[in-house]
Amino acid sequence: MQLKNSSNISTALAIASCSLLGHSAQVYAGDDKQDDWKVDAAIMYYGEQDRVQAVEAIGNVQKAFGDESLLDVKLVVDSLTGASASGAVAQSQSQTFTRPSGDGQYETAPGETPLDDTFKDTRVQVSANWAEILSPVWKTNVGMNASKEFDYFSLGLNGGLERSFNKDNTTLVLSGAYTFDNVDPVGGRPVAFSSMALRGDYDSEEEYRAAFAQTRMEGSNDKKTLDMMLSVTQVLSRRWLFQANYGLSSVSGYMTDPYKILSEVDDTGTTQRYLYESRPDSRLKHSFYMMTKGALDSGVVDFSYRYTTDDWDLNSHTLETHYRYYFSGRFYGQLHLRYYQQQAANFYRPFMMAGEPIPDYASADYRIGDMTSYTLGLKFGQRLSGGHEMSYRLEYYQQNPENNGFDLVGQLQDHDLFPEVKAVIAQVSYSF
Amino acid sequence: MSIQEKRVPSDFALSHRSWGHSGSFRAMASPCELLINSEDESLAREMMAIAACEAARIEKKFSRFIEGNPLWRLNHAGGEASAIDAETASLLQFARQCYRLSDGRFDISAGPLMALWRFDGGGIPAATDIKQAKVLVDFSLVDFDDYQLQFPSGMSLDFGGIAKEYAVDRVAYLLAEQWPTISVLVNFGGDIACPVSKGADTPPWQVGIENPQRLDSAAALLEIRQGALATSGDTRRFIEKDGQRFGHIIDPKTGYPVVKAPRSVTVLGPNCVTAGMLATMAMLQGEHAEAFLSEQEVEFKCFR
Predict the structure, then answer these.
(1) With a cut of 0.90, is the ipTM above it?
(2) Which of A72, A83, A315, B103 lies 20 to 30 angstroms, CA to CA, from B154?
(3) Residue A156: phi, psi to the nearest 5?
(4) Does A70 contact B3 at a Cβ distance shorter than 8 Å?
């Protein structure tokens, strides 16, 4: 039996196949609805040795609307407990401090760094971002975020515009953000450089309460931040790309840490009193960032450098690298190294000397002092069936505060005023 | 955050090669492989994810082994009309064209006959069973337009003869649309498409064709830069009775496997569905397979 018109069959089939294969771009998009959703969930633990412990739950949902729009909603809830350095110096004798609320006291043993152990808070952060492809070369995004904790509220808006050039090999992004923060410290806002009232110095509770009230101001205080960033990304070759960013950030308002104090010591290094710190109410920051990222035979590597400087004279350098290696199509390991070095803000001082005039601003917060820190991290990721992914991250983080040239008088030489802070970060993430 | 970072279900292996990347996964009961002429690993991953997702989508939609899927619903409509989407309608149109061009011997309603010839070593079905099954095989009774489909209760459709080749073309075209300058060879169990030509400065893709006598080694090495090829054959599935080998190509007109058919036919074509259908039709020609293909002026390889 012969087929009909044998010789025309291949031509007829080729024509029929064109209409079969030609039609179906929308079918792909339409049938793929489940894949428009992406959900990530993670639990993170951050623990400093003897200090702050935090547990954070992160939920992130992304929903694509067609190929042009993407909504990203993120919820973070974290719970912090533990103690943080108050700014006071260690002493050879035990020290007594009034809690920030004015209710009660805490003691620090001889030789120990004073830690305020009343640190306990729960924070809820919500953010939403909408990204939209306007044309093959223009993209835009707008977003908002809000965060609330017991004594703090923050609300921000952000937006960005992206333009690609040169067949997508060059991308320029301009973005901006405005954030409004409101601080309502426990026990009220301390009066700058007022002396901590201690119950032991007063005969009656009334007298103590009156003295404590003298160190406090009524009401909350605001902080406003305006950020602008310009970013250029350039594809260098099939394997490498380069990114450079410049960021400008202007902050105005209340930037003092209401829970931080300074010790005022005499010539023997013995503390006479504790003064509440005070910081300037404006800050202008510049940041410069460069990053290069490359695809290796079975991995990805990136290197970055960041320099920041501001009108508090707080300058920092950050070097960072990630190296990811794919053991198979479904399993990777990633190494993370980060080195950070900062020069102290111009009003930072580890303590004040009695008899010296009170400066305009001063803080003994080690976080704005001279410091180096490094991070060493490992992460493993595993692709599961159905497109699910599981990843595990473990990092070690160490801060090494340093003396930026202050003479340690008397007994201060006997104590470690710049103790290291060591922390561990562990995270488990699941995405589907 | 990038809009392009759309997630797809994927479960594949990827390895780096001197000429780019090679990735593999399983779908449609076949090993599926992509040869990607690019050093960019993240791009290769993106391609693999698209390929695995599209193959899984087509399998989910058109496999006759998945209870409750769109095809299952069409086959269980009990003689009532069912709504169909554009993709199903165009596959049906293509199947109708193949039915007509093959003079009724390529028939996607041949499921009941196929079921009798299950090739599980059970022997040859009884003549009465074959006669009974043939009553339920007749694509001319399948009535459809762009939006709906209707056929008599008891009949069923099986896209098994087209779906894999269709998936190969779909994956190849999806990738070629997005990366029109990167040559990718899509190979699902020997059905192959490569729409973007591999550059003249690099060696062509090499594809092994199976020898039906020796399944574990490639009998012929074929070189292609661009195009598609498909293989039809009884290399793995046949039954032998009284010295006669019955292949897996059933002629719906007789109800029996085609006699004197080649063990396998490989055809080169402009795309995989065309090549696949030419290979199937050549098998249906039995001893005239080579003559048929010569008339079509296509490149081919028959094993007997």
Answers:
(1) no
(2) B103
(3) -140, 155
(4) yes
